[in-house]
Design brief:
The chain is of the alpha/beta class. It has nine helices and eight strands. The strands form two sheets. Strands 3-2-1-6-7-8 form a six-stranded parallel sheet, with helices on both faces. Strand 2, helix 6 and strand 3 (137-141) form a beta-alpha-beta unit. Helix 2 packs antiparallel against helix 3 and helix 4 crosses helix 6. The longest helix is centred in the middle third of the chain and has 16 residues, at 76-91.
């Protein structure tokens, strides 16, 4: 990526699911993927499996890894093509994008800030969104690939502390001024990277996040229609 064209070194970091997009891109896309493969019955079975993992005490990283196991043996190119079709079908739906956060994104872009998407989802879902928005940088989960095929494995998903690590690396590599930067998120797991910037903003009405915003004096934005997060909490 080439960020040298920016006169300002401020950035605006945006979580995706629940912040810029209503719902959960990973799950919505997986349902479409399995349907396209003629295996729609596997989706509810997968959700039951995740519920079982959660009840057994599996952490969010383990549950996220279970998600990427669903793509084992599938060519990356075919998943990318499905992602393009999936996004094209969703982008025109009223309420798919959260207007309050979208307006902030556009405002930052117009101000010349580096715009960054930070998400636990993966490129198949997020590349079309990043292109649609004109985002400068995409920081996301990167499943393992060998010979152009997903292996079903992933190292560290882009969730929780991994987001903060990625933001720090990007800032160090491109000399971004985090004190002058902004961060938007809707879930408590976004806090580690949001508190790194000078201007964190909470999106939506998640009780824990609203409480955190009140305690630390963070501004809030109205969110979308689907404020209840999935029990897995792995999309952050």
């Amino acid at each position: 990526m080439n960020l040298t064209r920016y006169a300002t070194r401020a950035a605006a970091f945006f979580d995706v699911d629940g912040t810029l997009v209503n719902g959960t891109t990973m799950f919505d896309f997986l349902a479409c993927h399995l349907d396209a493969c003629g295996r729609p019955e596997e989706y509810p079975a997968f959700r039951q499996r995740l519920d079982g993992l959660a009840q057994a005490g599996a952490d969010r990283t383990r549950r996220c890894r279970a998600y990427y196991e669903m793509y084992k043996g599938v060519p990356v190119s075919s998943v990318a093509e499905e992602g393009t079709r999936w996004f094209a079908g969703r982008a025109g739906r009223p309420g798919f994008l959260i207007e309050s956060a979208l307006a902030e994104f556009r405002s930052h872009a117009a101000a010349g800030h580096v715009t960054v998407l930070v998400s636990g989802s993966f490129a198949a879902c997020l590349d079309p969104l990043a292109e649609h928005l004109g985002a400068d940088v995409l920081l996301c989960s990167r499943p393992e690939v060998r010979a152009g095929v997903f292996t079903g494995a992933i190292g560290t998903p882009m969730i929780g502390a991994a987001k903060a690590d990625a933001v720090r690396r990007l800032a160090d590599e491109h000399h971004l001024d985090l004190e002058q930067s902004f961060a938007y998120g809707d879930h408590i797991s976004d806090v580690p990277y949001m508190e790194m910037v000078g201007h964190p903003v909470v999106v939506g009405s998640d009780a824990e996040m609203v409480g955190h915003a009140a305690e630390y004096g963070w501004p809030t934005l109205a969110g979308g229609r689907e404020q209840k997060r999935s029990t897995e909490g792995m999309q952050q």
